[in-house]
Amino acid sequence: MKKQVWRFAVQVLLLLVSVSVSPSMVSAADQNSSGSMDKPLEIWPASEVSQPDESTILLHYVHLLGGPREGMTNPSLTIYQDGHLRVFYPSYMKQSGTYVASLSPASLKKLWRALTDQHLLKFDPQKVRSELSLLQKRDSSEQPSEVQSKSDEVTTMMEFYPNRYQPSPTLAQDARNEKKRISWYGLKSDVMRYETIVEIQLFYAVCEQLDAIMQSDQLEQIP
Amino acid sequence: MTIWRRFLGKVVFAINLAMLTSVQAGVFMLSEQSANVITYPTGYNGKGGELSVTIGIIAAPEPEMVISTLNAINTWNNLRPVLGNIVRRSNTDVPTGQFDFESVLLHELGHCIGLNHPTMSSESGLSGADRDYTKTMRGANNMFDLHPGLDGVIGSEDDQRADDVNLFWFHRKSNNPFTNAPIVDSTSYSRNLQDLPPGHLFAANANLETARLLGVGNSEAVMQQGIAAGETRRALSMDDVATLRLAMSGFDGTARTDDDFTLALEFADITNTADITIGFNTTGFASCEINAVEVMPGRFVIRKANIHLNSNVNWHFNTVSNTKPVLEIAANQATGTVDVTQNEQLLLDVSLMPGIREQDSADYWLRAETPVGLYWLNEQLEFVRSNQPIRAHGGPLVALDRFPVLNAPANGLPPGEYSVTFAVDNNQDEIFDSSFVGHITINVVP
Q1: Which of B98, B125, B225 sits opposite A92 (nearest CB)?
Q2: How confident is the model at residue A19 (pLDDT cuts 50, 70, 90)?
Q3: CB–CB of B122 and A126 under 8 A?
Q4: pLDDT of residue A23
Q5: Which positions in chain B touch A64 (Cβ < 8 Å)?
Q6: How far apart are CA B108 and CA A66, in angstroms?
Q7: Given this model, what pLDDT does residue A176 score?
Q8: What are the residues whose beta carbons fall under 8 Å from the beta carbon of A21, sequence distance 6 or more?
Q9: Which of A165, A166, B66, B121 is surrounded by the most beta carbons within 10 Å?
Q10: How far is B123 from chain A (nearest CA, A)?
């Protein structure tokens, strides 16, 4: 019962986040548009393929696979300020190569709202891990016999620049390059196991959208 | 002469290591539950004897995966530890852009029968070389304390880990992860750092760097997380074998008692009802998911295990069964039929993959049928003319990777066809049986 109440509370919070606006990041005109993250982001074929400008990266997202040796490349997604995006699959994957596409302005805005939610901006993975350890100990004392474990899960890593979307010309360079990094091992398993932890639920909701981008049929491979 | 001595030297070195080594244990699945956990394969109930665990394939998108699967099963069933189990041959059968399915499956099967990573690995949240520290839980300060000690090697005996809680079962006498004990149980292995040999600060694990430090290069626990594309790790290390043997000492943790068991993994073909199933999905890389029950404090028994591998990864499926040794002989890095001109250098090398027969007693032979008669390589590395077989060496089967047996100008060889056979016997009786052979034909032309 207690778990169901928590689940409901988290769902309400996710809904609120999806329609809320971070005033410092999104202009007033944007505030009327719907920002629900439960609909897929709209992806367009890339209009042009230009050399990526590293200084305009908004977000870099990587699946750090558990099996390959440390140092090998991993599947990744990079989204730029103008909505252009690049997906990379390493040589050991069947989709091997670099792909381009573009996020519609509305989708980019929607994604940005979700990313700049205060829960994500303040997400401290180590602190949340400690909370999970406590929950785990409580669960194991309540149900001591049955346990699950999964080896070699993916570490989901996301880096984004909260001050780069619609940047102010007066913004200092340091602030513009301020970066938020979130890294989580076994995200999907923990999302299912710990439905009351808001931060990882929100993080997972964003990651699901990014995963959908990485699998989109609008992606165009470039040489 | 010198070359053959090097060959014999390598064989003798491997034999000596095999005799001297003692099995070193590692970490068990579910060790995150509490430090003293030992996890047992499906079906173990405290009764001794043979424990049968079935392994089924949910669907077989690649027919070749059956051979790789059988090989991995054979390897766990045989429990023969080797040194030098990391193979990165320039002409490996695994292309650079592919991962060896058999090696990865061997690792995941280890998880499914209860073995964990011996090192911190990706689940720790650490990155880079820090993942090679011996597996621990956080101590009272709620952080991992990581210092490689004076030797600078991460995961070695002098690591300084402050209050981190060790999860690794080490050999009390040696704390050497590449050595062998006749008895593996809680009397000879411990997790308690107070049981370390004098002068040792922490439990050493079997990662590549500690192997180099201890002079046993290219060796690593199969349960160590991470493998490179184009690389194979198809044989168990001492650490893998010891961890399982520790579990095999039963719930009482004492070997040679009634609750000891031996493990028999059995292939159940295409089914989703086996104790361990193997299937494919499109996420991650490869993983094993287990459900287990704590049957007594700190003693977990796996109920069901599922392995998933990402079908989007370029997998290499080994098509050669490991039940028989594979031999290869190459001339100037080519096999089959090779033309060599008299003004060239001739490099002859041999390779041997013993499979699960590693350490079996064997006779080694190298025979050359030449335009001027039959020659044999003797123990002094001399090709001698003889119509009777001459043995090159008697000893255990060991892995040889492109080992040179001749490197000389071809101008000393009369033109014609040379048929060269590298053979090993499945016994050591000095009688030429040629149980397993590799062959090459060399045409020496003016």
Answers
A1: B98
A2: very low
A3: no
A4: 31
A5: 122
A6: 11
A7: 80
A8: A30, A31, A35, A113
A9: B121
A10: 6
Tokens of A174: 């340091």
How much is the ipTM here?
Answer: 0.82
Distance CA B63, CA B317 (A): 9
CA distances, A97 to each of A90, B41, B345, B391 (Å)? 7, 41, 42, 53
* Tokens encoding B258: 């009634």
Alpha carbon A190 to its chain's center: 15
Pairing status of strand A146-150 against strand B286-296: antiparallel
Residue B120, classed as helix, strand or coil, is coil
Residue A50: count of CB within 10 angstroms of its CB: 11
Are B241 and B206 in contact by the 8 Å Cβ rule? The answer is: no
Identify any residues that bridge with B407 across adjacent strands, giving them in sequence order: B347
What average pLDDT score do residues B170-179 get? Answer: 93
Do residues B89 and B123 touch, judged by C-beta distance below 8 A?
A: no
Q: Which residues have CB under 8 Å from A103's CB, separation 6+?
A: A41, A42, A43, A44, A79, A83, A84, A85, A111, A213
Q: What number of residues does chain B have?
A: 446
DSSP run (H or E) holding A16: helix A2-19
> Which one-letter amino acid corresponds to residue A124?
D
Q: Which two tokens stand for residue A187?
A: 């995200």
DSSP A22-53: -TTTS-GGGGGS---TTSPPPEE--S------
Bridge partners of B113, per DSSP, are: none
Cβ–Cβ of B122/A125 closer than 8 Å? no
Which residues on chain B are in Cβ contact (under 8 Å) with A70?
127-129, 131, 226
CB within 8 A of B209, min separation 6: which ones?
B132, B153, B154, B155, B156
Q: Which of A172-176, B195-199, B360-364 has the lowest mean pLDDT?
A: A172-176
Q: Based on C-alpha coordinates, what's the Rg of chain A?
A: 19
Tens-place pLDDT, residues A158-209: 999 988 887 666 667 777 888 999 999 999 999 998 888 899 999 999 999 9
Distance CA B12, CA B396 (A): 9
| β-strand partners of B40 | B301
Nearest CA in chain A to B313: A93
Tokens of B249: 């000492």
Angle ∠(A102,A108,A114) on CA atoms, nearest 5: 140
Which residues, 6 or more positions from B263, have their beta carbon under 8 angstroms from its beta carbon? B41, B50, B51, B53, B76, B77, B79, B113, B244, B248
pLDDT at A64: 95
CB proximity list for B205: less than 8 A, separation 6 or greater: B26, B118, B119, B132, B134, B135, B155, B168, B177, B221, B224, B239
Cβ-count burial B328-367 (b if 16+ within 10 Å, e if not): bbbbeeeeeebebeeeeebbbbbbbbbbbbbbbebbbbbb
Q: What is the pLDDT of residues B230-243, one digit of tens each?
A: 999 999 999 999 99
Question: Does residue B383 or residue B285 have the better pLDDT?
Answer: B285
Summary mean pLDDT of chain B = 90
Distance CA B246, CA B200 (A): 22
CA angle B205, B209, B212 (to 5 degrees): 105
Cα three-residue angle A169-A172-A178, rounded to 5 degrees? 115
Q: Which of A96, A140, A148 lies closest to B289 in CB terms?
A: A148
